[in-house]
Amino acid sequence: MKKTLLIIVLFLSLGCFAQGEANIWYFGQNAGLDFNSGSPVALADGQLVTQEGCATISNASGQLLFYTDGVSVWNKNHQIMPNGTNLFGDSSSTQSAIIIPKPNDPNMYYIFTVTELGRAKGVCYSEVNLSLNGGLGDVTLNKNIQLFTPSTEKITAVKNKNGNEYWVVAHEYGGNNFLAYNVTATGVNSTAVISSVGTSIDSNENFTIGYLKFSPDGTKLISCNGFINVELYDFDATTGIISNPKVILSTPDISNYGVEFSPSGNIAYITYGGYTSNDKLIQFDLTAADIEASAITIYNRYTSLNYLGALQLGPDGKIYGTVLWQDNLFAINNPDVLGAACNFDLNAVLLTNGSSNYFGLPPFITSFFNVGINLNNNCVGEVSSFSLSGNQNTTSANWNFGDGNTSTDISPNHIYATAGTYTVSVAALSGSDTTTKTRDIIISKIPTATQPQNLMVCDSNNDGIYSFDLTTQNTAILNGQNPNLYTVTYYANVANYDNNNSISTPNNYENAIAYQQQTIIAKVSNKENGSCKSTTSFDIDVFEMPKPNLDLPSLSSCDNTSVGTDTDGLIFFDLTLQEMTLLNGQSGTQFSLYYFKDASLTQNITNPTAFQNTNPIETIYVKMVNNDNVNCAVPTSFKIEVLALPLVTKY
Fold first, then answer.
1. CA 209, CA 154: separation in Å to the nearest integer?
2. Do 273 and 180 belong to one domain?
3. Is residue 42 assigned to a domain?
4. What is the mean pLDDT of the chain?
5. Is 596 helix (H, G, I), strand (E, B) or coil?
6. Which residues form the signal peptide (predicted)?
């Protein structure tokens, strides 16, 4: 279901809201794209011939300023800048360059360069002054200023928490250090914030290969560590500290290369393969409890030599990617949707005039893509909160939520009654400046989570620990809902649920403490949107199994007059005289004993302290039961026997 509306949108500042710095791309063999029309248009005027690394920068209106392969720098007229050669990047470095504007100075930019395969040039920066050479720009004498060496081939950048400075992050070769450099109005701070975290990249120069990317909101970071793994991290845009490493893809001996986040930052895409296996484009749900297990193969390329390469988010909200030596780019048209609905298109953009791909695409400051309509909570029946990014000074706004409802709040809330796809439009007014912003959003159904029966088990070996198969509760918890649409995830306690620390093997889960009741949290989430979820809980408990004596001696007594005569073979027995032997060392307060006349345990002996036999020899059946769980019961038996009195003969 899709509701499409068109509404004219007015904004305080075009430059503040619709950033154009990433609207022009140059890459590969003379290839280029122009996004200023809203869709990518192929360019044929680029001078780059680069296997991998490249970088481009435009102004806020989307007009080209300059571009580079990390070695040479071309101005907007596609001419080499004065002093614009022999930078210390390398066209065969994954991310040989990234361009950072100097805050509060529209003419000054920094080109950060990264050499290939951990070579001695390391990470450097060079300064570009666009006020020189008649406004076309020169590379100044502040050139190839080394920050550290050796380095891997990866570098990325994002705005700081306040949005007025930048963090540039690279990774060393020879250890597990990330180095974050702050770019401020005073220039590049050469003292790095060092985070020693995650995989150590050393011992093999091929491990240096692979992209490093921030999420558009700057809270997450993914590193493709070539031939090792792919790791997800948290990033603090205030301090520059990187933390909480999680391996989301283990790829020993397989090259992982390109990475990109969806606009929301909730989904990631990876390209890997190439040298030793078929190339794949993999999607990961970053909201999943087990991110690695959430992997979905979106595309599998079996053709040899035409490897999948870089991934790059575009200004249109789509992710584009390269196929080696081909004259087209592929696209992920709906990158914020899980599975095949992300709409992969292998031949999305045709390049022109003999230009073609190699491996690379130009990386940008990822904050450039954190603009437009923000949405928090896209679940049916709950409050969806909308806000604007890229402009904090909007004076008025008119929203249309795509379902016939509107709002004039600058940051409105809205509740959708039906699941589906909606086109949300917003109009904000100040002065005469205008721009247009719409966003397709998917509102997903919230599943129900039905509380199942508790799992109460009897312990076979009486150590108090039991291996539970929690997944046997799935059917009861889903209660008729389609398991292909919803996922059940289990958590050992409330704290683990709050920290999204799920039980990794719910089909083989051991309780935490012997003989202690434990409450399990079960979450049912919509596979389309993991944030649409419900929870329930149930208890698991392990109970001591009775271990009665199974080889009881007979309870014998001489005939007496407690019943009838002392010669009739009938007496009253106190069956409880066997209790200590029956309990076999287990607690008499924890376990109860029930006595029966028959093996099927249906004829209860109501007064075992005064039981009258009917035959001189009988079998008494006993059921030993755990008082806390009557299902934990074990039967046994013993014989009772009336012995005849000796016959005394008088002489």
1. 7
2. yes
3. yes
4. 90
5. strand
6. 1-18
Burial of 549 (0-12, 13-18, 19+ CB in 10 A): middle
Measured CA to CA, the distance from residue 210 to residue 272 in angstroms comes to 10
Q: Which of 380, 362, 367, 422 is nearest to 46 (CA)?
A: 362
* Confidence grade of residue 184 (pLDDT, cut at 50, 70, 90): very high
| Amino acid residing at 472 | T
349 and 387 co-located in one domain: no
Among 409, 443, 477, where does a domain finish? 443
Same domain, 274 and 160: yes
Residue 293 lies inside a defined structural domain of this protein: yes
β-pairing, 383-389 with 413-415?
antiparallel
- Let me know whether 376 and 363 are in one domain: no
How many structural domains is the chain composed of?
4
Shared-domain flag, residues 231 and 149: yes
Answer with the one of 511, 544, 577 that is the final residue of a domain. Answer: 544
* 167: its two tokens: 């963090």
Q: Is residue 279 part of a domain?
A: yes
Backbone phi and psi for residue 219, each to the nearest 5 degrees, phi listed first: -95, -20
CB-based contact 84:97 (threshold 8 Å): no
Global pTM value: 0.61
Do 365 and 377 lie in one domain? The reply is no
For residue 530, which of 343, 383, 337, 281 has the smallest C-alpha distance? 337
Cα distance between residue 336 and residue 529, in whole Å: 9
Q: How many angstroms separate the first and last alpha carbons of the chain?
A: 112
pLDDT in tens, 283-292: 999 999 999 9
Note down the domain range covering 23.
Answer: 19-369
| 538: helix, strand or coil | strand
Q: Which strand ranges, in their side-by-side order, compose the sheet holding 212-214?
A: 212-214, 220-225, 229-235, 242-250
Which tens digits make up the pLDDT trace of 29-56?
A: 999 999 887 789 999 899 999 999 999 9
621-651 burial code (b ≥16 CB/10 A, e <16): bbbbbbeebeebbbbbebebebeeeeeeeee
Secondary structure letter of residue 479 according to DSSP: T
Q: Are 567 and 644 in contact (CB under 8 A)?
A: yes
Does 2 fall in a domain?
Answer: no
